[in-house]
């Protein structure tokens, strides 16, 4: 593993002025590498380097920018296994998840933005009569996507490869320069991404990476006068603080925040499909994912069978060493987060929920493990049903009819992705359109990677993924001329 990792600033690898700190494997509690602690001055230097590089990079032909992204994708894929080993060690993801959903997705995202899309489109001519603005005439117009400038990318710990790539690739494709501030728990993967971009030929200053455990690192990046936009993935609480800073300077922002995904399961649902989909909360990143269907709303006719099958599903999952091929549920990211998740389970008990599966710490000698846990007998006003737990914990709330189910789904501070399981496709689509969420999965937890991604309410601001990310990392300029 990497030891004594350097910062990446202005095209050079620099020793951190704040020294190094240990990156801990959540499965073994052993040190897997030493991450750099940047000083505020080094963060400001990174932002200044990005500002200096912006002009030349924004004027680089889109085809040339795309070629660099394509080379980076190939380099990442070439070293996929080695990259995944580091990702698994610092995140606690299973080997299959680290390879298939972290590194491979990152490579795919760089490949996706290695193709050039039109950045301008014609607007129908307008015929103006004579008046205060001049003589009669025909005015043509063109709308042009222009890069925003310097983007501070503040990424999440649950998927350091895919999350960072989802920001960096479209931002670079549009001609922006970036300063990436990875999550303190697992930054080593992001530095590997920077090395791939460097080897692919990205010019100095176009990509910068600065890390640290101190909140001052992120504050310096978000508050830098050289930064034009902040792209953040993380908790709603931190997102609010970042939004306040951005608001003072009218800085553009893209926020992908928390979630408490409602999964409406109707009486006519395919229960096997619903259980498999909802069960991903237990297994996928050990529930550390904002899109998880963590709040199950079960129609009473199917409620008992659903609870029974979900409990059986949870109990069958192997919890343990993510390096073992048959492990399904690995650890959560840290001891502090394990304690937080366990405190929610205990809170659920006190609120009157019934622990149907899990609820006890797995009997393992090391690692930050939480057993897949199912809480039934919940009501929508319980904190376990309203607050994001971010762990392998699912709560079940019963409902009677369609209207009540929709009302319960909407009774939330969040609105990222909701789900509907029903054998009546017409009803499923009807319900989906009434849900106040940025996305709705109908009989699936799968994602279309060209579909817009983002949230309503406190789940975020803006949309990215696919072509929507190119819009997110650009400003639209109108050019008007006499015809």
From TrEMBL:
Residues 13-479 form the Aldehyde dehydrogenase domain. InterPro entries: Ald_DH/histidinol_DH, Ald_DH_C, Ald_DH_N, Aldehyde_DH_dom. Keywords: Oxidoreductase. Pfam families: Aldedh (PF00171). PANTHER family: ALDEHYDE DEHYDROGENASE-RELATED. This is Aldehyde dehydrogenase family protein. It comes from Streptomyces dubilierae. The lineage of its organism: Bacteria, Bacillati, Actinomycetota, Actinomycetes, Kitasatosporales.
């Amino acid at each position: 593993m990497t030891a004594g990792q350097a910062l990446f600033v202005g095209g050079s690898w620099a020793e951190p002025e704040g020294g190094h700190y240990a990156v801990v494997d959540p499965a073994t509690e052993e040190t897997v590498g030493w991450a750099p602690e940047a000083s505020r001055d080094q963060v400001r230097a990174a932002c200044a380097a990005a500002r200096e590089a912006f002009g030349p990079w924004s004027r680089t032909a889109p085809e040339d920018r795309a070629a660099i992204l394509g080379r980076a994708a190939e380099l990442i894929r070439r070293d996929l296994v080695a990259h995944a080993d580091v990702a698994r060690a610092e995140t606690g993801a299973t080997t299959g998840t680290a390879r298939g959903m972290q590194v491979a997705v990152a490579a795919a995202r760089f490949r996706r933005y290695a193709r050039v899309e039109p950045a301008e489109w014609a607007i129908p001519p307008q015929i103006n009569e004579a008046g205060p603005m001049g003589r009669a005439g025909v005015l043509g117009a063109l709308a042009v996507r222009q890069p925003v400038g310097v983007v501070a990318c503040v990424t999440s710990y649950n998927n350091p490869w895919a999350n960072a790539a989802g920001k960096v690739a479209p931002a670079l494709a549009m001609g922006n320069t970036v300063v990436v501030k990875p999550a303190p728990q697992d930054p080593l993967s992001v530095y590997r991404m920077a090395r791939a971009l460097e080897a692919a030929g990205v010019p100095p200053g176009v990509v910068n990476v600065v890390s640290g455990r101190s909140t001052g690192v992120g504050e310096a990046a978000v508050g830098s006068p050289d930064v034009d936009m902040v792209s953040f993935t993380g908790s709603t609480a931190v997102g609010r603080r970042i939004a306040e800073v951005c608001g003072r300077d009218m800085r553009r922002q893209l926020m992908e925040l928390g979630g408490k995904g409602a999964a409406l399961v109707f009486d006519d649902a395919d229960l096997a499909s619903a259980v498999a989909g909802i069960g991903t909360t237990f297994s996928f990143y050990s529930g550390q994912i904002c899109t998880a269907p963590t709040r199950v709303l079960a129609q009473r006719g199917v409620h008992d069978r659903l609870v029974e099958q979900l409990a059986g599903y949870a109990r069958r999952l192997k919890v343990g060493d993510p390096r073992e091929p048959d492990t399904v549920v690995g650890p959560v990211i840290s001891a502090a987060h394990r304690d937080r998740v366990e405190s929610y389970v205990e809170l659920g008990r006190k609120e009157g929920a019934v622990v149907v599966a899990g609820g006890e710490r797995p009997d393992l000698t090391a690692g930050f493990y939480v057993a897949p846990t199912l809480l039934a007998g919940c009501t929508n006003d319980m904190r376990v049903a309203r607050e994001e737990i971010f762990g392998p914990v699912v709560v079940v709330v019963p409902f009677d009819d369609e209207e009540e189910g929709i009302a319960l789904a909407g009774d939330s501070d969040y609105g990222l992705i909701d789900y509907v399981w029903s054998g009546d496709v017409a009803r499923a689509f009807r319900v989906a359109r009434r849900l106040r969420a940025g996305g709705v999965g109908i009989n699936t937890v799968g994602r279309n990677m060209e579909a817009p991604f983002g949230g309503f309410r406190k789940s975020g601001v803006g949309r990215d993924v696919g072509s929507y990310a190119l819009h997110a990392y650009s400003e639209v300029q109108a050019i008007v001329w006499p015809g």
